Amino acid sequence: MAAEVKEIETNKTSGTGAEGQQEENQLLVVFKKPFEFEGVVYKDVDLSGLENISARDMIAANKIMERSGTVNVIPEMSLEYACIISSKATGKPVEFFQSLPPKEALKIKNRVTSFLYGED
After folding, report:
1. Can you give the pTM of this predicted structure?
2. Which portions of the chain are predicted below pLDDT 50?
3. CA distance 115 to 120
4. CA distance linking residue 91 with residue 102, whole number of Å
């Protein structure tokens, strides 16, 4: 019996005001090709939940990495840290992010790193 595949696409945009033009969500990561995880196909992932993480979440991510034996001078620059923080920000399991193809995983890492180190 074949499992039913459900397709998920967030594609959130926000208006720019009077012009009525659409501005791309900077925390929306669009995949080059659809990605299937646990029977669901994803075309993108919205990391806007990064706006709601706390220092406590960052500390928890560091502790998870330490327990796994990972030692990193600047953990927030690592792919593993980005996967953990993305999981906290989206509510998706960390395995979702760890299962992404390399280029998509690096898009996630770069977006998380840019968010953390970007200027307001």
Report:
1. 0.80
2. 1-3, 11-23
3. 9
4. 21
